[in-house]
Design brief:
two-stranded antiparallel ribbon; 5 helices; 7 strands; 150 residues; alpha+beta; single chain; three-stranded antiparallel β-sheet; 25% strand
């Protein structure tokens, strides 16, 4: 059984102050994050699905796969089972199971593994990058959009 819950982050006294000195409200806790696969999942009919949703992992999501016989036989399979538990949708496909994750291109699986780490360990989908031409630092959101789009 999967459930989706939206939480409001607890207030910590006063509002936070931004880098520019203005006061801003605390951000609500996000439990689901949209993403765009680099290549896309190709279903049985040949349709390519690229956009999807991943939810935050629970302790159970990380513990249950350890009892899976496939993971016991091959510890590398842990990421397949874990990703299949937290991805709730890829395109119009909502029945996400290890077989779907197995059929992803390697670059898409690597993307989802990094995405999982970012939202569960770091709490966001932003990454700091440097422009190779001008060496300017800026932040990109890995969750969505195509290159060049805002």
């Amino acid at each position: 059984m999967r459930r989706t819950v939206q939480f409001q982050a607890p207030e910590r006294g006063a509002e936070r102050e931004s880098r520019h000195g203005e006061t801003r409200q605390p951000e609500p806790l996000r439990t689901e994050f949209g993403f765009e696969l680099p290549r896309g999942y190709v279903d049985e009919s040949g349709t390519v699905h690229r956009s999807g949703v991943m939810r935050l992992a629970t302790a159970r999501d990380e513990l249950v796969p350890l009892r899976d016989d496939r993971v016991r036989e091959n510890p590398a399979y842990l990421s397949v089972v874990l990703i299949s538990r937290v991805v709730t949708r890829i395109g119009t496909v909502e029945d996400i199971h290890p077989g779907v994750i197995e059929d992803l291109f390697a670059s898409d699986l690597a993307f989802l593994q990094d995405f999982y780490r970012r939202i569960n360990a770091e709490g966001h989908t932003r990454a700091a990058v440097n422009c190779p031409s001008c060496h300017e630092e800026f932040t990109v959101d890995l969750a969505g959009g195509r290159l060049g789009e805002s």
